[in-house]
């Protein structure tokens, strides 16, 4: 039985304490948020992956704050129980703290998200403190951070060397200490993500980080088999929505062309005498 109580930062922490896995899924619009909510996900992420998944860019870098607000508005109209988190996009949290607060504030005031997510490690600690002091809940994101793809040299697994693994552990602890209420770990080896999850008291949410995290997140279109592009190895497909949609559109096109659509039940009529009168008056056909 899926609970109907709204998810909160406190209930998420409780889930970790009780060993109940946290389910997070991205959504980018009203119908996807509705479906995610009805299916009982705990958290919805309005990810900047929307740039690649629904806007057709080849990275998350072109995504703007206005794009994120636009999609967040649609998602929050479709979700009431699930906890909605929105990504701060590329370069919207690297200026002054005042600018960052204004940007995060717009996500919450205009988009009505309950929290923001930012990519990066210990260097973000002062910023996170200021956000949480201002009442803005923050989710951290370490490991593969797609906004740095051109520095990382591609979408690759992170934390494989002893130094890189130690840095991820140090970053995770620094982010917890700075006040993030949850931490996303992307493309991190399972043993390392498990160790980090055990050492933190806040929930960890993995994507390509193995089964030892406190929760999992995946991209909506990836689990549904809906959408083109490269699908990462960590994705499991739970549906074939793309194939279903393709088949339906092809059938529609076929029936328009052969006249099977529209049929009588899709058609409006008026009384014969009304149209007869018009014909009688010589209406042009
Ligand atoms: N549709 C979609 N799903 C995602 O999960 C996703 C996006 N888009 N866009 C933003 C980021 C980019 N992500 C990605 C993209 C590619 C790989 C990838 O190809 N990884 C390699 C692993 C390479 C290695 O072994 O180091 C793979 O084979 O999966 C991983 C994460 C995750 N995010
Ligand atoms: C893949 C998840 C963690 C994300 O940041 C996104 O969807 O943008
Ligand atoms: Mg993202």
Automatic annotation (TrEMBL):
GO biological process: methylation; pantothenate biosynthetic process
Reaction(s) this enzyme catalyzes, per UniProt: (6R)-5,10-methylene-5,6,7,8-tetrahydrofolate + 3-methyl-2-oxobutanoate + H2O = 2-dehydropantoate + (6S)-5,6,7,8-tetrahydrofolate
Residues that, per the record, bind Mg(2+): 48, 87, 119
Cellular localisation: Cytoplasm
An example Gene Ontology molecular-function term: methyltransferase activity
Cofactor(s) the record lists: Mg(2+)
Catalytic activity, EC: 2.1.2.11
Positions annotated as active site in the UniProt record: 186
Domain of life: Bacteria
Family annotation (SUPFAM superfamilies): Phosphoenolpyruvate/pyruvate domain
Similarity annotation: Belongs to the PanB family.
Function, in words: Catalyzes the reversible reaction in which hydroxymethyl group from 5,10-methylenetetrahydrofolate is transferred onto alpha-ketoisovalerate to form ketopantoate.
Subunit organization: Homodecamer; pentamer of dimers.
Name of the protein described by the UniProt record: 3-methyl-2-oxobutanoate hydroxymethyltransferase
Lineage: Bacteria, Bacillati, Bacillota, Bacilli, Bacillales
